Amino acid sequence: RLKEFGLEIPLELWGITDHKIDAFKIETAFKNFLDSAVICHFYPYEYHHMVDALNAAGGWNLKKEDIVQIGERIINLGRLYLLREGFTAKDDSLSARAFRRLDSGPIAGKSLTPLELREGLEQYYRKMGWSTNGVPETMTIDRLDLVDFSN
C-alpha cells in the first residue's frame, strides 16, 4: 500500500530510519481516519480501494492525500488536547521492557536504546510539523485548520 505514496517496500528490518518514519506517519494518519469513519483496519485493501469505496458511498471526491490529511488533523487535535492537559514530549516514551535485547527471531541480539527512540521521535516530530518538544508548529495548525483548538 505504501507504494501508492512513493515509498519503497519492503521497509528496513532494523532501526528507526527516515523511510520508516514516513511510513509510520502515513499509516497512523490513515488508521486514524479509518477509526473516525468506523472502518475495520484489517481489511486487505490498497489505499485507492478505500478511497474509491468512500467516494462511492458518500458521493465525495476525495483523494488518498485528503484522507491522510484528515488523519493528520485527528492526530494533531489529539496532541493539542494532551498538551493542554499537561502532557509533554517526556511522556512520549516506552516502558523499560521495550528496550530489552531480543533473544530470538530475525533481529535477535538487537535492542532499541532510549537514545534511538528519542532520535526517532525527533524525526517524527519534524515530519509532523511539530517542534522538538512535540508541539504542533503554527504552520501545521494553520494548514490543518486547527487554530480554534490551539489556545
The CATH homologous superfamily name equals Aldehyde Ferredoxin Oxidoreductase Protein, subunit A, domain 3
CATH architecture: Orthogonal Bundle
- SS-based structural class? mainly alpha
Distance between the termini: 36 Å
Number of domains: 1
Whole-angstrom Rg: 17 Å
According to DSSP, the number of beta strands is: 0
- Characterize the main sheet: none
Number of helices, where a helix is a run of at least 4 consecutive DSSP H or I residues: 5
Low-confidence stretches: none
Q: CATH top level?
A: Mainly Alpha
Helix content range:
40-55%
Coarse morphology = globular
Mean pLDDT: 92
Assign the CATH topology: Aldehyde Ferredoxin Oxidoreductase Protein, subunit A, domain 3
Topology (elements, then pairings):
Blueprint: H1 18-36, H2 47-58, H3 64-84, H4 114-128, H5 138-143
Helix pairs in contact: 1-3, 1-4
Short description:
The protein is mainly alpha-helical.
3D structure, described in words:
The protein has 151 residues and is mainly alpha-helical. It has one domain: Aldehyde Ferredoxin Oxidoreductase Protein, subunit A, domain 3 (Orthogonal Bundle). Helix content is 48%, strand content 0%. 12% of the residues are buried. The model has no long low-confidence stretch (mean pLDDT 92).
Feature tags:
single chain, mainly alpha, 5 helices
